[in-house]
Amino acid sequence: LPQRLASLAATAKEETWQSRQQLQAQRQEMARLQEELSRARQDGERWASALQRAQREALEREATRGAEQARQQELIRDMKGRLLELLREKDALWQKTEGIDTPMPSPVPLDPGLCARCHKDFRLLSRRYNCRLCQVKVCHTCSVDMGKQHGRCCLICYQQRHTQTT
């Protein structure tokens, strides 16, 4: 019986020692988990703070964008109003100038080596054209191409013809 008691005491002592080891390991694990929990809470607080900051910045950007959009819409309204004013001015000026006679083409210059409109010399690189309407000789700058059927004509004849057709 004493041996059995000694054996039971030894077994109980061994189990106690193992239980203490397990308890110590569990305490260490619990301390590690509490530390991780603490870090997780700190990370959560940082993320919540970052989220609030991002939301504030987004609201500020939205307010700025709204103000900019309102300013641009006002600018567009102002530009449309100015465009209407300019169109009315153009119409008024057109009505005023409608009765004014357009100048007649100037007579053919005596020197066939000069442009009838700007009196520039015809040279190797400045080509001369005959106006298909008034038959004067004009340079490229003082003429307008009216297409394959009509050829080129001087600016004055083109303006007279263009105002008659509109």
Automatic annotation (TrEMBL):
Superkingdom assignment: Eukaryota
Domain FYVE-type stretches: 115-162
Pfam family name, one: RUFY4
Coiled-coil blocks: 16-57
GO molecular function terms listed in the Swiss-Prot or TrEMBL record: zinc ion binding
Keyword set, alphabetical order: Coiled coil, Metal-binding, Zinc, Zinc-finger
Keyword Metal-binding: yes
InterPro entries given in the database record: RUFY4_dom (IPR059036), Znf_FYVE-rel (IPR017455), Znf_FYVE_PHD (IPR011011), Znf_RING/FYVE/PHD (IPR013083)
Keyword Zinc-finger: yes
PANTHER family (alphabetical): FYVE AND COILED-COIL DOMAIN-CONTAINING PROTEIN 1, PDZ DOMAIN-CONTAINING PROTEIN
Protein name: RUFY4 protein
Species whose genome carries this gene: Panurus biarmicus (Bearded tit)
Gene: Rufy4_1
